[in-house]
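ok so i was messing around last nite and threw this chain in just to see what happens. nothing serious, just curious
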Amino acid sequence: MSLICFFLMLQCVVFVCLYTMESTNLILCNKQSIMDLSCISQARGMIEYNTWIRNCSKDQSQLILEKQMEIQGKNVYFKDCETYILCKYEQIQMRIYYDDHFVSGLEITKNVSSEIENVPKINKILPD
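result:
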């Protein structure tokens, strides 16, 4: 009888551990999704602005070809390559393809730190 109770208790512990691991993974996926959507939103802003400059202005020096910012505590680097926006942070690289005003495709590559050039760091000025 005690052996049956032990196995039932063991199954309950395993179930709780699996449930906890699944919940943790879902939380991590949610954070990654929010980060990706934030990057895409910033890229859309660059696309709209640069398309407007290319179509309506003769002064091409106003184009935002490179941009870096901090999103959710991570240094993110954007570069307009005319047909796509290159977005890099940590070990993730996103290519956000566009035509005129709209995002037409997305390509995400992970673990690319050795394949891409180093992303410049944001210099923060701290008060004295």
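not much to say yet. Residues 119-128 have pLDDT under 50 and may be disordered.
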